[in-house]
Amino acid sequence: xxxxxxxxxxxxxxxxxxxxxxxxxxxxxxxxxxxxxxxxxxxxxxxxxxxxxxxxxxxxxxxxxxxxxxxxxxxxxxxxxxxxxxxxxxxxxxxxxxxxxxxxxxxxxxxxxxxxxxxxxxxxxxxxxxxxxxxxxxxxxxxxxxxxx
Length: 149
What we know:
Helix Hairpins; single chain; Monooxygenase; 2 domains; mainly alpha; 149 residues
């Protein structure tokens, strides 16, 4: 399993300096861009692009930290199962959406975005405290809400 934090030589934590990440990304791109490097550098360029995409996204970054620590929420067969409350709430929201007006849908979107932000703060705290199972459950909830958007 690749550790994207190591590739970018940054600390393996949720709260990262996104400006530093971007700076390192562009530095790598100048160094390993396929137009400027040999064919052998294409794989390195692809790995850099993949790692950057993961690390710049809070949800994907949290999932990557969990994966590094043995919890793979991206692989359905190995992923922890969502709790009943999450499934019930998501189902209830999904059932209401077809009957909502455009304004109600926009309000729901704003509400879910705010809830996702709050949940990601909880994930960050859990990861910082190395409470990986708790972080996984919250992140699963985030992913379900994100799918509704």
